[in-house]
Amino acid sequence: MKRLSLFLAILLFGCSQKENELESIEIMSYYYNYDENTKLFVDLDEYSKIYTNGDVEIIKRVKPFEPKYIYLKSKIDTKIILDIGETNKSLNDEYYESKIDTNRLDVYDGPVIRVKLKYKNDKVISFTYEQTDKYENDLKYSLFLKTQKAISDNYNKKYYEIIDSINIKKSQKEFEIFAFRKDTLSLPMPPKPIDPSEQIKFPPPNK
Questions:
Q1: Measured by CB atoms within 10 angstroms of the end CB, which terminus of the chain is less buried, N or C?
Q2: Residue 131 DSSP code
Q3: Are 150 and 76 contacting, i.e. CB atoms less than 8 angstroms apart?
Q4: Could you read off the pLDDT of 82-127 as tens digits, one per residue?
Q5: What percent helix, strand, coil does the chain show, rounded to 5?
Q6: Is 202 exposed, middle or buried (0-12, 13-18, 19+ CB in 10 A)?
Q7: pTM here?
Q8: CA–CA separation, 32 vs 41, rounded Å?
């Protein structure tokens, strides 16, 4: 009986450990813009889905601010992924929340970068950061910046293969919906463009 209890304890411990493992990482950089009907939309720059075996599937914009993309697959060092999984096991979204300094007037015009960590036990951690010195000098973002750099280096060195777009586009669209819901609750959205009919018109200067 004792042997059976010990076996069940070991089995349950192994299962709980496995359920607490990282399943995937998603990183998306994007902007918010308005279409001609002043409807807010996500303007994608780059999206990566990273698996624990090092495989990375990527959607990458070909030219800045043009809606043309390529679909790639590459591989990065699994150590970075394992480090991210272990470091964040006991953390949550609040750990990465950054307070906005209302006394500063800095204008950031770069992309939003959102990360989503998904564990096998359905735990999810998600947060955003920016391409600024503030985040690049903060150690808690270093593993994610290192991951982005590894993906970028592979692209620059042409260490990738072209893949079919169906699955990666589906993953990106699901993440886009997830990000939009999160962002509208926590991030300042760009102001709507002013309708020409509502613009203030000044009289012409006297000749």
A1: C
A2: S
A3: yes
A4: 999 999 999 999 999 876 555 555 677 899 999 999 999 999 999 9
A5: 40, 25, 35
A6: exposed
A7: 0.82
A8: 6
